[in-house]
Amino acid sequence: FNAAGAVDDYGSKITIFLLPGIYSFLFTLLSILNFFPHIFNYTKEITPENALAQYSIATQLLRVLKLTIGIVFFIISYGTIQSALASGEFFGIWLLPLILTMVLAPVIYYVIKASRG
Questions:
Q1: pTM of the predicted model, to two decimals?
Q2: 3-state SS string for 8-31
Q3: Is the pLDDT of residue 86 over 80?
């Protein structure tokens, strides 16, 4: 699919399992990374006074991103299947802004929250 949501290439039927596979890998990787918040980059210097709050904000962000990425991959997979079954376009021009908003909004929210906290 291109940025306008129109089909611009075709692949094998097996490629429909690519996104769930990528999501499983990302979910596992982000879950493991969530156990080590002390290695993340932060907007503020970490001190003993603010460490717990900053680590909590960072782990919350990763949990929200795992959910958001799952939803985005589901929408793309569902749209791909619907486009193939209906032989038409499921995606519209709204898909790219929706996905960018879904991914960037939590990141911006938690960066602002971390810089205040």
A1: 0.83
A2: CCCCCHHHHHHHHHHHHHHHHHHH
A3: no
